[in-house]
Amino acid sequence: MTENPENPSPHISQERVKHDPAIGASVRLAVIPDSMGFVILLGLATLLLL
Known about the structure:
The protein is mainly alpha-helical. It has helices at 12-16, 21-49. It contains two helices and no strands. The radius of gyration is 19 Å and the shape is rod-shaped.
């Protein structure tokens, strides 16, 4: 990939390892709702057990 001084890459480490940002985005999109659901489940269980 050629360097463009007018539009530098915001993720230089991804550019060095030739990592596609779409792969990381799909993982983040799956983890966020799963972890939020788990936190909500634990919160509701705590409220019911008190």
